[in-house]
Protein backbone atom coordinates (compact mmCIF):
# COMPACT_ATOMS: atom_id res chain seq x y z
CA UNK A 1 0.00 0.00 0.00
CA UNK A 2 1.38 3.39 -1.06
CA UNK A 3 0.45 6.31 1.19
CA UNK A 4 -0.04 9.70 -0.42
CA UNK A 5 -0.51 13.25 0.77
CA UNK A 6 -2.07 15.25 -2.04
CA UNK A 7 -1.43 18.97 -2.32
CA UNK A 8 -3.74 20.92 -4.61
CA UNK A 9 -7.37 20.66 -5.68
CA UNK A 10 -7.41 21.96 -9.23
CA UNK A 11 -8.35 19.81 -12.22
CA UNK A 12 -5.28 17.56 -11.99
CA UNK A 13 -5.37 17.27 -8.20
CA UNK A 14 -9.07 16.41 -8.12
CA UNK A 15 -8.74 13.78 -10.84
CA UNK A 16 -5.71 12.27 -9.10
CA UNK A 17 -7.64 12.13 -5.84
CA UNK A 18 -10.45 10.21 -7.51
CA UNK A 19 -8.00 7.82 -9.16
CA UNK A 20 -6.10 7.23 -5.90
CA UNK A 21 -9.35 6.59 -4.04
CA UNK A 22 -10.40 3.99 -6.60
CA UNK A 23 -7.13 2.06 -6.26
CA UNK A 24 -6.89 -0.68 -3.66
CA UNK A 25 -3.12 -0.16 -3.55
CA UNK A 26 -3.14 3.55 -2.69
CA UNK A 27 -4.33 5.36 0.40
CA UNK A 28 -4.71 9.13 0.50
CA UNK A 29 -3.81 10.03 4.06
CA UNK A 30 -4.46 13.73 3.67
CA UNK A 31 -5.51 16.36 1.15
CA UNK A 32 -4.15 19.89 1.38
CA UNK A 33 -5.48 22.96 -0.37
CA UNK A 34 -4.80 26.61 0.31
CA UNK A 35 -8.57 27.21 0.26
CA UNK A 36 -10.04 24.49 2.42
CA UNK A 37 -13.56 25.34 1.25
CA UNK A 38 -12.71 23.83 -2.12
CA UNK A 39 -12.21 20.39 -0.57
CA UNK A 40 -14.63 20.66 2.36
CA UNK A 41 -17.13 18.38 0.61
CA UNK A 42 -14.57 15.54 0.85
CA UNK A 43 -13.99 15.81 4.61
CA UNK A 44 -15.98 12.63 5.29
CA UNK A 45 -13.71 10.68 2.90
CA UNK A 46 -10.26 11.98 3.71
CA UNK A 47 -8.47 14.18 6.22
CA UNK A 48 -8.28 17.71 4.82
CA UNK A 49 -6.17 20.68 5.78
CA UNK A 50 -5.12 24.15 4.70
CA UNK A 51 -2.04 24.12 6.96
CA UNK A 52 1.25 22.83 5.49
CA UNK A 53 2.63 22.51 9.02
CA UNK A 54 -0.06 19.95 9.79
CA UNK A 55 0.92 17.49 7.05
CA UNK A 56 1.25 13.87 8.15
CA UNK A 57 4.02 11.49 7.14
CA UNK A 58 3.50 9.62 3.88
CA UNK A 59 5.39 7.66 1.23
CA UNK A 60 4.97 10.48 -1.29
CA UNK A 61 3.76 14.06 -1.32
CA UNK A 62 2.10 14.85 -4.64
CA UNK A 63 2.13 18.56 -5.51
CA UNK A 64 -0.65 19.17 -8.04
CA UNK A 65 -0.84 22.96 -8.15
CA UNK A 66 -0.33 25.52 -10.91
CA UNK A 67 3.22 25.68 -12.24
CA UNK A 68 3.77 29.15 -10.82
CA UNK A 69 2.98 27.95 -7.29
CA UNK A 70 4.99 24.70 -7.22
CA UNK A 71 8.23 26.22 -5.94
CA UNK A 72 6.39 28.19 -3.26
CA UNK A 73 4.58 25.13 -1.93
CA UNK A 74 7.73 22.99 -2.03
CA UNK A 75 9.75 25.61 -0.17
CA UNK A 76 7.09 25.87 2.55
CA UNK A 77 7.04 22.15 3.36
CA UNK A 78 8.12 21.80 7.00
CA UNK A 79 10.19 18.62 6.64
CA UNK A 80 13.29 17.24 4.93
CA UNK A 81 14.41 14.13 3.03
CA UNK A 82 10.94 12.96 2.07
CA UNK A 83 9.77 12.11 -1.44
CA UNK A 84 7.92 14.99 -3.09
CA UNK A 85 6.76 15.02 -6.71
CA UNK A 86 5.11 17.60 -8.92
CA UNK A 87 2.70 16.87 -11.77
CA UNK A 88 3.84 19.55 -14.21
CA UNK A 89 4.62 18.78 -17.82
CA UNK A 90 6.97 21.71 -18.28
CA UNK A 91 8.94 22.28 -15.06
CA UNK A 92 12.23 20.68 -14.04
CA UNK A 93 12.18 19.01 -10.65
CA UNK A 94 14.77 21.52 -9.43
CA UNK A 95 11.76 23.79 -8.76
CA UNK A 96 11.05 21.49 -5.81
CA UNK A 97 14.08 22.81 -3.97
CA UNK A 98 16.84 20.92 -2.17
CA UNK A 99 15.30 19.97 1.18
CA UNK A 100 13.57 16.82 -0.04
CA UNK A 101 13.95 13.99 -2.54
CA UNK A 102 12.56 15.34 -5.80
CA UNK A 103 10.54 13.63 -8.51
CA UNK A 104 8.02 14.14 -11.30
CA UNK A 105 4.75 12.26 -11.78
CA UNK A 106 3.22 13.83 -14.89
CA UNK A 107 -0.08 12.43 -16.19
CA UNK A 108 -0.19 13.20 -19.91
CA UNK A 109 -3.85 14.03 -20.41
CA UNK A 110 -6.26 16.96 -20.58
CA UNK A 111 -8.26 17.30 -17.37
CA UNK A 112 -11.61 19.04 -17.01
CA UNK A 113 -13.50 18.90 -13.71
CA UNK A 114 -16.79 17.81 -15.27
CA UNK A 115 -15.25 14.96 -17.30
CA UNK A 116 -14.43 11.51 -15.92
CA UNK A 117 -11.02 10.11 -16.87
CA UNK A 118 -10.07 6.47 -17.30
CA UNK A 119 -6.61 6.54 -15.75
CA UNK A 120 -5.71 3.19 -17.28
CA UNK A 121 -5.48 5.13 -20.56
CA UNK A 122 -3.29 7.93 -19.15
CA UNK A 123 0.49 7.72 -19.76
CA UNK A 124 2.53 8.72 -16.71
CA UNK A 125 5.90 10.41 -17.22
CA UNK A 126 8.23 9.62 -14.33
CA UNK A 127 11.51 11.22 -13.35
CA UNK A 128 13.80 10.99 -10.33
CA UNK A 129 17.50 10.57 -9.64
CA UNK A 130 16.85 8.09 -6.81
CA UNK A 131 16.36 4.45 -7.86
CA UNK A 132 14.21 3.62 -4.84
CA UNK A 133 12.00 6.63 -5.50
CA UNK A 134 11.64 5.63 -9.16
CA UNK A 135 10.42 2.25 -7.94
CA UNK A 136 7.84 3.99 -5.73
CA UNK A 137 6.66 6.12 -8.66
CA UNK A 138 6.40 3.07 -10.92
CA UNK A 139 4.42 1.22 -8.26
CA UNK A 140 2.10 4.21 -7.92
CA UNK A 141 1.59 4.30 -11.68
CA UNK A 142 0.89 0.57 -11.72
CA UNK A 143 -1.59 1.01 -8.87
CA UNK A 144 -3.58 3.35 -11.13
CA UNK A 145 -3.38 0.90 -14.03
CA UNK A 146 -1.29 3.36 -16.05
CA UNK A 147 1.54 2.78 -18.48
CA UNK A 148 4.63 4.63 -17.27
CA UNK A 149 7.54 6.17 -19.14
CA UNK A 150 10.93 7.12 -17.69
CA UNK A 151 11.26 10.60 -19.20
CA UNK A 152 13.83 13.25 -18.34
CA UNK A 153 12.96 16.95 -18.06
CA UNK A 154 14.03 17.83 -21.60
CA UNK A 155 11.97 15.01 -23.08
CA UNK A 156 9.00 15.89 -20.89
CA UNK A 157 9.08 19.52 -22.03
CA UNK A 158 9.02 18.35 -25.66
CA UNK A 159 6.08 16.00 -25.03
CA UNK A 160 4.29 18.83 -23.21
CA UNK A 161 4.90 21.14 -26.18
CA UNK A 162 3.63 18.42 -28.50
CA UNK A 163 0.56 18.04 -26.29
CA UNK A 164 -0.19 21.75 -26.65
CA UNK A 165 -0.26 21.28 -30.44
CA UNK A 166 -2.45 18.18 -30.46
CA UNK A 167 -4.80 19.29 -27.69
CA UNK A 168 -4.89 23.01 -26.90
CA UNK A 169 -4.30 24.30 -30.41
CA UNK A 170 -6.57 21.67 -31.96
CA UNK A 171 -9.33 22.57 -29.52
CA UNK A 172 -8.99 26.23 -30.51
CA UNK A 173 -9.51 25.17 -34.13
CA UNK A 174 -12.64 23.31 -33.00
CA UNK A 175 -13.82 26.55 -31.39
CA UNK A 176 -13.28 28.49 -34.61
CA UNK A 177 -15.14 25.82 -36.58
CA UNK A 178 -17.97 26.02 -34.05
CA UNK A 179 -18.14 29.80 -34.50
CA UNK A 180 -18.15 29.50 -38.30
CA UNK A 181 -20.87 26.85 -38.37
CA UNK A 182 -23.04 28.69 -35.84
CA UNK A 183 -22.86 31.86 -37.93
CA UNK A 184 -24.63 30.03 -40.78
CA UNK A 185 -27.00 28.02 -38.55
CA UNK A 186 -25.18 24.77 -39.29
CA UNK A 187 -25.00 22.29 -36.41
CA UNK A 188 -21.47 21.68 -35.12
CA UNK A 189 -22.73 18.15 -34.38
CA UNK A 190 -22.24 17.34 -38.06
CA UNK A 191 -18.47 17.73 -37.67
CA UNK A 192 -18.11 15.32 -34.75
CA UNK A 193 -17.81 12.12 -36.85
CA UNK A 194 -15.03 13.85 -38.82
CA UNK A 195 -13.28 14.83 -35.58
CA UNK A 196 -13.47 11.23 -34.36
CA UNK A 197 -12.20 9.72 -37.63
CA UNK A 198 -9.30 12.19 -37.73
CA UNK A 199 -8.29 11.16 -34.21
CA UNK A 200 -8.73 7.45 -34.94
CA UNK A 201 -6.66 7.54 -38.12
CA UNK A 202 -3.49 8.58 -36.30
CA UNK A 203 -3.83 5.52 -34.07
CA UNK A 204 -3.03 3.41 -37.13
CA UNK A 205 -0.93 5.65 -39.39
CA UNK A 206 1.42 8.59 -39.16
CA UNK A 207 -0.04 12.12 -39.23
CA UNK A 208 1.92 12.66 -42.45
CA UNK A 209 0.09 9.82 -44.21
CA UNK A 210 -3.25 10.79 -42.66
CA UNK A 211 -3.23 14.30 -44.16
CA UNK A 212 -5.98 15.12 -46.65
CA UNK A 213 -7.64 18.33 -47.85
CA UNK A 214 -7.23 21.14 -50.39
CA UNK A 215 -3.73 22.23 -49.31
CA UNK A 216 -2.31 18.73 -49.73
CA UNK A 217 -3.92 18.13 -53.11
CA UNK A 218 -3.05 21.59 -54.44
CA UNK A 219 -6.63 22.80 -54.84
CA UNK A 220 -5.98 26.54 -55.05
CA UNK A 221 -9.53 27.37 -56.18
CA UNK A 222 -11.08 25.85 -53.05
CA UNK A 223 -8.50 27.59 -50.87
CA UNK A 224 -9.35 30.93 -52.50
CA UNK A 225 -13.08 30.41 -51.90
CA UNK A 226 -12.40 29.53 -48.24
CA UNK A 227 -10.29 32.63 -47.72
CA UNK A 228 -13.00 34.80 -49.25
CA UNK A 229 -15.49 33.42 -46.74
CA UNK A 230 -13.36 34.24 -43.71
CA UNK A 231 -14.22 37.67 -42.35
CA UNK A 232 -12.16 37.50 -39.14
CA UNK A 233 -8.54 38.49 -39.96
CA UNK A 234 -7.16 36.15 -37.28
CA UNK A 235 -9.09 33.21 -38.69
CA UNK A 236 -7.83 34.07 -42.17
CA UNK A 237 -4.24 34.27 -40.90
CA UNK A 238 -4.55 30.87 -39.19
CA UNK A 239 -5.97 29.34 -42.38
CA UNK A 240 -3.15 30.78 -44.47
CA UNK A 241 -0.45 29.72 -42.01
CA UNK A 242 -1.67 26.14 -41.75
CA UNK A 243 -2.25 25.92 -45.50
CA UNK A 244 1.33 27.03 -46.09
CA UNK A 245 2.62 24.52 -43.55
CA UNK A 246 0.74 21.64 -45.19
CA UNK A 247 1.88 22.82 -48.62
CA UNK A 248 5.52 22.85 -47.53
CA UNK A 249 5.20 19.45 -45.84
CA UNK A 250 3.64 17.77 -48.86
CA UNK A 251 5.56 19.52 -51.60
CA UNK A 252 2.90 21.73 -53.22
CA UNK A 253 5.21 24.75 -53.25
CA UNK A 254 3.57 26.36 -56.30
CA UNK A 255 0.11 26.38 -54.76
Sketch the topology as an H/E string, one letter per element: EHEEEHEEEHEHHHHHH
Mean pLDDT value: 94
Whole-Å distance between the termini?
61 Å
Helical percent range? Answer: 40-55%
Largest sheet: 8 strands, mixed
Number of strands: 8
CA-based gyration radius:
22 Å
What percentage of amino acids are in beta strands? 15-25%
How many individual helices?
9
> What class would the helix/strand composition place it in?
alpha/beta
Described by the principal axes of the CA atoms, the overall outline is: elongated
Q: Uncertain runs with pLDDT below 50, 5 residues or more?
A: none
Q: Within the largest sheet, what's the order of strands?
A: 3-2-1-4-5-6-7-8
Q: What does this protein structure show overall?
A:
The protein is of the alpha/beta class and 255 residues long. The protein is built from nine helices and eight strands. It has an eight-stranded mixed beta sheet with strand order 3-2-1-4-5-6-7-8, sandwiched between helices. The mean pLDDT is 94.
Amino acid sequence: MISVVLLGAGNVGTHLYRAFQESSDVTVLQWYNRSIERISSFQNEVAITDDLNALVEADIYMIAVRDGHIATVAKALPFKDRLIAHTSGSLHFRFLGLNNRRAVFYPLQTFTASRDIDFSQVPICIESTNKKDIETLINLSNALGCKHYLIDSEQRLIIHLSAVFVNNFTNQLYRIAHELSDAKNVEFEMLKPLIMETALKVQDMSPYLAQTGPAKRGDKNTIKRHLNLLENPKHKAIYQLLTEAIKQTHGNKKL
